[in-house]
Amino acid sequence: MKPLSKIMLCTALGAMIALGSAYAESKLNLLINGHGVVTSYLDLQVKDGKVLVPIDRLAEEFKGKAVYDADKNEVQVTLPDSAQQAIQIERLEAAMVPSTAKEALDTWVKGIQTRNGALQFAVFSPELRSKTKKEFEDYYWTTGGSSPHMSEIEKLKTKSLNKTTTQFSFDYGLVASNWKGKGSAVVTVQKFASKGHEGWFITNIKMKDPSDTGTTIGVEPLKK
Fold first, then answer.
1. Cβ–Cβ < 8 Å for 193, 184
2. 12 neighbors 57 (Cβ within 8 angstroms)
3. Which of 38, 43, 66, 209 is close enough to 56 for a disulfide, judged by CB 3.0 to 4.6 Å?
4. Among residues 117, 105, 126, which one has the least CA distance to residue 192?
5. Exposure of 92 in the CB half-sphere (CA atoms within 13 A)
6. CB-based contacts of 35: which residues, under 8 Å, 6+ apart?
7. Are 175 and 151 in contact (CB under 8 A)?
8. In terms of C-beta density within 10 A (0-12 exposed, 13-18 middle, 19 or more buried), how is residue 169 classed?
9. Nearest to 202 by CA among 88, 109, 91, 116
10. What does residue 36 show for φ and ψ, rounded to 5 degrees?
């Protein structure tokens, strides 16, 4: 049986809870993803600095259900599809944590070539994720445009800045229906642990023209 703490965590996946006022007579302001929620039903309380709420009511707030089985002495929580999908995405990202700096670069390039924002985001560092998540969401995790698109990378140069940081510089082809061109970029990759998984993650991206492949998120202009 899963500990209740894990059940509550899964139930609240994807939610950000902020306390908007000091505790007073068990009445708190609750914000979930920036939106206020009526809390009288939830019966929120603060005890020893911890926020307490009945798990069945919290589950219902997220369109789920919690049932106590007295015979088995366990709580069964049914999660909504969105929460299950969040767990699935987290598992997929954990499985594809780059084990080398080059693998991180290749994954990002593939994400650009296929206009897949989720693939690009998967190899971003936590700091870069926090800066770009809202923009990816606004574009429904689709980047790029109709044309041109990035083709193969060329003239790849690898520079080790230190034991945990590698910088790649390269050119890449630009292809449209009746036109071809060139672009260039510098990508910095760093090794550290993220969400309990050690790997290589992109910390900085610079392109000569950040708009040459359409909507490219998390990129800075490459200064001459």
1. no
2. no
3. 66
4. 126
5. 10
6. none
7. yes
8. middle
9. 109
10. -70, 145
Neighbours of 123 (CB within 10 A): 25
Compute the distance between CA of residue 188 and CA of residue 16 in angstroms, rounded to an integer: 30
Tell me the C-alpha distance between 18 and 10, whole Å: 18
Q: Which amino acid is at 177?
A: S
Query: Which single residue is written with the structure tokens 């009945």?
Result: 54
Amino acid in the structure at residue 153? I
Span 165-178, average pLDDT: 94
pLDDT in tens, 40-82: 667 778 888 888 878 787 777 666 778 888 888 888 877 667 6
What secondary structure does DSSP assign to 31-49, as a single string? EETTEEE--TTTT-EEETT
Tokens read off for 74: 């366990």
- SS3 of the chain: helix, strand, coil, percent, to 5: 30, 40, 35
- Please state, in angstroms and rounded to a whole number, the distance separating the CA atoms of residues 169 and 104: 14
For 108-123, what is each residue's pLDDT tens digit? 999 999 999 999 999 9
- C-alpha–C-alpha distance, residues 76 and 53, integer Å: 16
Amino acid occupying residue 46: V
> Domains plus CATH for the chain?
4-86 (no CATH), 98-221 (3.10.450.100)
Range with the poorest average pLDDT among 25-29, 130-134, 186-190: 25-29
CA-to-CA distance for 164 and 38, rounded, in angstroms?
A: 47
Measure the CA–CA gap between 222 and 185, rounded to whole angstroms. Answer: 7
Size of the chain, expressed as the number of residues it contains: 224
